[in-house]
Amino acid sequence: NEQLLLQSEKLKLAGEIAAGVAHEIRNPMAVISGFVQMMSTEKDSTCYAYTEIIQSEIERINLIIGEFLVLSKPHVEQLKVVSIDEVINNISQLFHLEFQKHNITFSMHIVSDNNRILANENQLKQVFINIIKNAIEAIEAHTANGEIIIYIAKDAEGLNMVTITDNGVGMSEALIKRIYEPFYTTKSTGTGLGMLITNKIIQEHGGTIAIESKINCGTTIKIKLPQAEN
Ligand code: ADP
Ligand code: MG
C-alpha cells in the first residue's frame, strides 16, 4: 500500500513536470513546423526530401505532448450525467472507416437499461478511444478477420460494466503487468501512454479496469463504473 502511495505521488509529480515541459516545448515546435512548411514549398531546396520526415517527427512529438497534457490535467472537472451507451455509440462511429479498412466486424450490445454515470464526457470518450485503438492495432497485427465486441451491462452490485473484446494478438501475463507503465509499448509508433491515461481516468471516476488476455486469441478489457443517481 505504501508502495502504491509512493508510486501515485511520483506519477503526480511527473505529471506536473510534464505539463510544464509540454507547454515550453509546444511554442518552439510550432515555429519549427512553420519553417519546415516553407521549406517544403521551395522547389530547388536540397532539403526537400527531408521535410516530410521532419514534419512526421514533429507530429509524433505533438502526439506525445498532447497525451502528457491529458495526464497532467487536474482531477475530474466538468461533471455531468452521461449516457455510456451514447458515448460508446459516438466513438464507434468515429472508427467506422477504420473498421472497414481493416475488415473488422464491430458490434455493441446494450444489455441493461439506464447506463449512466456522473463523468467528464471528454475524458470518458478518451477511455474508449484508447481501448478501441489498441484493439484495432492488436487485430491489424494478427488477423484479417477482426472482431470487436462491446457489452454494456450491470454487474451483481449494480455497477455499470463495459467489456471490450477483440480477437487480436493478445498479451502475455508479463505484458499485462507492465501495461500501465509510462512509455511501455510494443509498437514501433506507440507512445505507451494510452493505457496509463485510461487507467487514470477510470480511477478518477471511481471505477476499475480488469484485463484478461490470451496470446494469439485476444483480449477482454472489463471496466466498471459507478451508476449515476437519478
Ligand atoms: P501504445 O498503444 O502506444 O503502445 P498503450 O498504453 O495503449 O500504448 O498500450 C501498451 C501496450 O499494451 C501496447 O503496446 C500493447 O503491447 C499492449 N496492448 C494494449 N491493448 C492491447 C490489446 N487490446 N491487445 C493486445 N495488446 C494490447
Ligand atoms: Mg494505445
TrEMBL record:
Residues 20-229 form the Histidine kinase domain. It comes from the Bacteria. This is histidine kinase. The lineage of its organism: Bacteria, Bacillati, Bacillota, Bacilli, Bacillales. The chain holds residues 312 to 541 of 541 of the full protein.
